[in-house]
Amino acid sequence: MSDPGTLFILATPMGNLEDMTFRAVRLLKEADLIAAEDTRHSARLLSHYNIATPMTACHDHNEEKRTIDFIDQLLSGTTIALISDAGTPLISDPGFKLVRAAATANIPVVPVPGCNAAIAALSASGLPTDQFLFCGFLPKKQGQQIKALEGLKPRTATLVFYESPKRILTLVQRILMVFGDRDACLAREITKRHEEFIRTPLSKLLTDLSNRDRVRGECVLMVQGHTGKSSAPSHDTLKAEIQAGLDAGIKTNCLAADLARQFNLPKRQVYETILRIKD
Q1: pLDDT tens-digit profile of 25-70?
Q2: Up-side HSE of residue 156: CA atoms within 13 Å toward CB?
Q3: Class of domain 118-278
Q4: pTM for this one?
């Protein structure tokens, strides 16, 4: 029986095609098969580096079925390179089922390091990097998202979120409502022509995004962890958090209770402030 092939977990550029390692290019050329999240998207990368290796799709909708085929191929000696649309596979991208199945079958699984949006954004954020927690994409439903944020609120590590440009404003609103005003950094279009880093408190970030016609590009939002400090909020901060809660659809009574507890303020005072803002 022949030795099994190797499954390479290979990082690819997030936008700038120059962000490829020499090793990654060589392994893509030497592999027997490339498993790509989107073959049409990855075709541009392969064409740029004159890579003619056969390519097949492996994405969220077919990964379970593809995994069975890939494991059979790997066991027969085939070398497969797994790539996603951008960055490192499996990090909020497909591939977990395949990697777990390969490891279970004692097939060599080898990472080929390279681009990763979370690490790239964090390195330039200006926020603490000694400890960080990758949170990925939070649940989309309001109740589930707020529950997840409540669980993250006491964490002292810098929090790293992924979000689409269509939902980033809502995410900032809800984080501001649950956490209070903290230092943050929004990175978008990393390595691309319109790359942008917005380093500012959440309340000002909310204002910035609200004043834009639309937000473009995939977003990485980083929020400073809990510092243990609690002080009475400024009027502008409290107003911004109330507005964020209202925009997120939080009921007045629940919002007043949450903010009163968060800032150690009388609930009646917060409730009356909410009513004034609503009026």
Answers
A1: 999 999 999 999 999 999 999 999 999 999 999 998 999 899 999 9
A2: 5
A3: alpha beta
A4: 0.82
